[in-house]
Amino acid sequence: LPRDPAQNARKASDEEGGELVHQDCPQPRAGEEADSSSRSPVAKRRKVDTEGKRGRQREVGEEEAQKMRTLVAAMSKEQLNRYEVFRRSAFPKSTIKHLIQAVAGTPVSQNVVIAMSGMAKVFVGEVVEEALDVCEKWGEKPPLQPKHLREAVRRLREKGQMPSTKHKILFF
Question: Are residue 115 and residue 141 in the same domain, yes or no?
Answer without folding.
Answer: yes
